Amino acid sequence: MTLAPFVLDPQLASDTVAVSQLPLCEVRLMNDKRYAWLVLVPQRAGMVEISDLPDAEQAVLWQELNRVSAALRSVAPCDKLNCGALGNIVRQLHLHVVARREGDPAWPGPVWGHSPAQPYAGHALATRCAALLDALDRGRPQTVDDR
Amino acid sequence: MTLAPFVLDPQLASDTVAVSQLPLCEVRLMNDKRYAWLVLVPQRAGMVEISDLPDAEQAVLWQELNRVSAALRSVAPCDKLNCGALGNIVRQLHLHVVARREGDPAWPGPVWGHSPAQPYAGHALATRCAALLDALDRGRPQTVDDR
After folding, report:
1. Which of these, A126, A128, B21, B127, is most buried using a 10 Å CB contact count?
2. For residues A135 and A73, what is the distance between their CA atoms, to the nearest angstrom?
3. DSSP β-ladder status, A95-100 and A16-21
4. What is the band of A141 on the pLDDT scale with cuts at 50, 70, 90?
5. What pTM, to 2 d.p., does this model score?
6. CATH code for the part of the protein at B1-102
7. Do B50 and A83 touch (CB under 8 A)?
8. Cα(A9)–Cα(B25) distance, integer angstroms
9. What digits encode the pLDDT tens for the residues B20-72?
10. What is the largest CA-CA distance in chain A?
11. What confidence score (pLDDT) does residue B4 get?
12. Does residue B147 surpass a pLDDT of 60?
C-alpha cells in the first residue's frame, strides 16, 4: 500500500506559520497578534476527525497537546486555555490551543469566527516563534542521552 | 488526604441533562434542540484544564471522547464533529462534543456563544437521551463476560 503524502491545507498554510515539528504534529502559530494561538496539525493525509487517527497516534496527539499547552502558557500567561477541533471550514484535522485572557477581544466567547486576524508587525512574529520554540524544546520528553 | 467531593457546576447543571455515567465522565446533553450536543464532565473536583487531570485519567478521557463521539454520530448523523474545551465562563473542566450539520444555525461558526439555547419540547429530550444511552451502551468496551 502506498500512503498518500501529507500536504498542509492551503488555508492553514496562509493563516499560520510553522514553529516546530513534533513526532506527530507540526506546530504552527496563528498570525494574529491579539492572541497567543497555536495549531497542531497531525502530519497524516486524509484525517478529518480525531477518531480517524489510529489509537496509538491519538495517544501521541494528546501528549503533544500537553507539551504544546505547557509551552504556550510559559510564553503567554493566560487565564484559560481554549482547545478545540472544529474543522467546519478547513476539514484537514487540526487542533487549536489558544491562551485566553479576560478582556481579550473575543472574551468570553470563542476566538473562532470572531473577527479578522490582525497580523504581527515587525519582528514580533519571529520573536514569539523563537520563544515558543525554546519553550517546546525545554518541554521535550527526556531520553537517556539527556540525563 | 481527603479528596474534595465532586459537585457539578450549577450553570452546567442548568444547561444540560444527565445521560449516562462513564468510568470518568458524566455524559450530559445540552438542552438545545437545534444541535445534538453532548458535554463530558470528568467527575473530579477542582479540575480546570485538561492537563490538571493525571495522565492516566487523561487517557480515560480520550477513550470516553471516542466512545461518546461514535454514539453521537450514530444518533445524529453530521457533517463534522466539533470538540472543544473552553471554560471561559464555566471553569469546571468539561468537554463539548457537537454534531454539526452544514446549514445549522451557527454554521460554519462555533456554537459557543452564538445564540440562546432553544430547549427541546415534549418528549423530544427523553427520546434523544434514550437513543444516546442505547448507542453508548452498544459502544461500551467489551469485557470477558460480554463475549
Report:
1. A128
2. 9
3. unpaired
4. confident
5. 0.94
6. 3.30.428.10
7. yes
8. 34
9. 999 999 999 999 999 999 999 999 999 999 999 999 999 999 999 999 999 99
10. 51
11. 84
12. no
Residues of A with CB under 8 A from a CB of B: 48-51, 58-59, 62, 65-66, 69-70, 80-89, 91, 100, 107-110, 112-113
Pull the grid cell for residue A36. 497567543
Cβ-Cβ contacts under 8 Å for B145 (sequence gap 6 or more): none
The CA distance from A17 to A21, in Å, is: 12
Model confidence over A53-63: pLDDT tens digits? Answer: 999 999 999 99
Chain B residues touching residue A65 (CB < 8 angstroms): 50
- Within 8 A by CB and 6+ apart from B68, the residues are B22, B25, B27, B38, B40, B97, B136
Looking at the partner chain, which of A58, A84, A107 has a beta carbon nearest the beta carbon of B62?
A58
The CATH superfamily label for domain A10-106+118-138 reads: HIT-like (3.30.428.10)
What are the residues whose beta carbons fall under 8 Å from the beta carbon of B84, sequence distance 6 or more? A82, A83, A84, A85, A86, A110, B95, B96, B98, B110, B112
pLDDT given for residue A94 in this prediction: 98
Across-strand partners of B136?
none
User: Shortest CA distance to A7 belongs to which of A60, A44, A54?
Assistant: A44
